[in-house]
Each structure stands twice: as structure tokens, then as C-alpha cells.
Amino acid sequence: MNWITLAQEVIDGKVLTDEEAMAFLEADDDELLPIMQGAFTIRKHYFGKKVKLNMIINAKSGYCPENCGYCSQSSISTAPIEKYPFITKEEILEGAKQAFENNIGTFCIVASGRGPTRKDVNVVSEAVKEIKEKYGLKVCACLGLLKEEQAEQLKDAGVDRYNHNLNTSARHHDYITTSHTYEDRVNTVEIAKKHGLSPCSGAIIGMKETKQDVIDIARALRELDADSIPINFLNAIDGTKLEGTKELNPRYCLKVLALFRYINPTKEIRIAGGREVNLGSLQPLGLYAANSIFVGDYLTTAGQEENQDYVMLKDLGFEIELAEKQAALL
Length: 330
What we know:
Number of strands: 10
Low-confidence stretches: none
Shape: globular
């Protein structure tokens, strides 16, 4: 396979066949650098050498009635995590201030649970109005299954993006959770799109899915027209259904990132949870396919020290991309 030629064909409008897509995931490790060079050809064409930074604030931890097998906050998890109800507007604003001071372009307000209450949406809405005025950050909300009127309220408050991951393929979904359907997740993304919220939806790799499942989720996200695609790599937590699962290695993770770039060439591909554990010393190579990363901690697991990420970006010769209003305020 000539990965560079294939990359140029993708830029020209080609859609990968299943055979071509599978070639990424089954490629010999000796092909890794040419694969990443091809991915970078596409990434550079659409995004140059800019990197978007994202930061999460965990607005509500635990107390979730869903039975997702990967999640330490789920109803079936016995993992010893910190649990607390929805935080205050002031706490959200303090997190936004930290994001602003650290050149984070997108501030992500994330809460556990099946979906938000009216009070939760009100707190987020009031906080976002002030975040926009004070810091100019792009704001992404991730609050679970969304109703029409909630999406409308969040959009009116200034929320830019709504995240709800498909997580895995339609075929594999019931192995991961049975307390909601794959269609429930798709519907939430469609509701967000309908009300003018930029759709953010991604995957978790390493949950005992097949290689075909990986291809299928990459294609499903293309069909869904998600603007931003976070790729998580399973960090199996003791006390969850998937504890002890260790199917990934750094080279395979890089091939997955490249595949998502080839299938979704114009979209923001974000390396999300589990990158430190699963990519290890090869993390910098991931940004030759992806153009976005999370900085700081995740929901119930720790990221690497923030200064390491900034050093990594500097060493790569990449440029941090700020939100337009944020840049004007700095």
C-alpha cells in the first residue's frame, strides 16, 4: 500500500474501501512511519500544524444509573471513586479561569448520569454566559442523553458544542451497555445538531471489539458528520466490567488514529482518555494524525502533568490554536 498516494486520493475526495481500511489495522509495524506520514499529509492539508487544547471539568461524579462496562461511575462499578452532586456555577467559572490562563481553547463541562435535570442545565447555562463574556472560550457540554428543549437552552446560553460519544459500533454496543441503546446515542447527537450545537462524538478503542468494529465506528462518525471526534483508548479500571482488559499497544493505537484521519479527513480528531497509558513514549507521533488533545486530568483518571504537554507541542514545532475571542482577550 502506498500510504502517501492514498492520502492524496483522500484529499481529492476518495472514500476508503473496507479492504483499504482493514489494511491500516493489519499493517506490519514496519509500515507505521509511512502510515503516519500519510495521515500527516491529510492533517497538514486541512489543519496545518495547529493543535487545539481541551480541558475537562467533572461537574458531577458518580451516582450514574447506567451500566456502561468501561466506566468507574456506572451503577455496576465497584471502583473507589470520589462522588459528588452537580457543582456550583462558581466552581465551573473557576475551572474556566484556569483553562483561560493555560491557553486552553475548549472548556468541557462533563457530568455523569443518564441525562441532565432542569437544574443542571440552568447551572451550566448561567455559567456559560459568564464564561463567554469573561474568557471567550469555546464551551463543550457533555451531560448525557439530551432533550430538545435542553439543547435549545444550552445553545441560547452560548454553548458551542455538545459531546455524546457513540463509543463503539452498533454491533458491539450491547456488550458495553444495555441500559440505553446505540440509537439513543445517535439521537442525542442529532438533537444537538438540530439546535445548532456543533456535534462532538467519538469512540473508545480497546473494549474487546473487532477490527471491523473499529472501521464501522469510524464510518458511523463520518455519516453522523461529527465535527469533533475524540478517540479514547481504554484505561481499564479495577471494579468495572472491563477491568484487566489490555488489548492495546502504542503502535496499534497510532494506526487507529491514522485510520480515523483517513476516514474523517476534514474533522477535528482529538486524542482523549487513555493516551498517556496506551501511547506512552509514542504520544508525540499521535499528533501527526490528530489535531487536538486533552490537557490535564480526565473524569476519574489522571492525565500527565500539563507542562509535559506544552513541552511536547513545542518540541514538535506545533502551534496552539486559541478560540478567536479568547485570543483577543489574552
